[in-house]
Amino acid sequence: MNKKDIWRYKSLEQLENKSWGPATDQDSGIIQKCLALVKVPVVKLAASELRILIGQSFNPSYLVPLALEILQNDVLVTAGMYPGDLLKAVLDVPAAFWEEHPDLHKSLLDLMQERSEEIETEIDLPEFWRNNLVM
Questions:
Q1: What is the mean pLDDT of residues 121-130?
Q2: How far, in Å, CA of 95 to CA of 10, rounded?
């Protein structure tokens, strides 16, 4: 294992040195799910779990690279809801993140250009991506 990949074997709680504490009965189902997932090593998160955490605005710096790896294999992977739901969650990450991570931005743009015909039929692109992508 490459030393730069050690982060993959840590949970979001470990990576952020932050404890969200246990879920309570008052927490919604989605919050209970997220509070359980932040304790799981990020490398073990399934596509559906990444979709949930990304959609709930958990740290995209760790989650988006993993999601992009999955999307490279299947850009329209069904992550619990519908074809392309993981891609949609990634596309909904705020523009500021992509501006701060140009390497990830380029990777996603390249993937979307390579698979544009598939994506056009399944995903309603957010405005940020429509403006940054020529399909």
A1: 76
A2: 26
> Is 63:42 a contact under the CB 8 Å cutoff?
yes
Q: For 76-120, how does the pLDDT look when each residue is reduced to its tens digit (9 = 90+)?
A: 999 999 999 999 999 999 999 999 999 999 999 999 989 988 887
The 3 state secondary structure assigned to the chain is CCHHHHHHHCEHHHHHCCCCCCCCCCCCHHHHHHHHHCCCEHHHCCHHHHHHHHHCCCCHHHHHHHHHHHHHHCCCCECCCCECHHHHHHHCCCHHHHHHCHHHHHHHHHHHHHCHHHHHHHCCCCHHHHHHCCC
Show me where the domains of the chain are located: 3-132
As a whole number of angstroms, the distance between CA 57 and CA 89 comes to 10
Q: Are residues 104 and 64 in contact, defined by beta-carbon separation less than 8 angstroms?
A: yes
Q: How confident is the model at residue 51 (pLDDT cuts 50, 70, 90)?
A: very high
Q: How far apart are CA 116 and CA 58, in angstroms?
A: 27
Rg value, the chain, Cα: 15
pLDDT value, residue 132: 67
d(CA 23, CA 39): 12
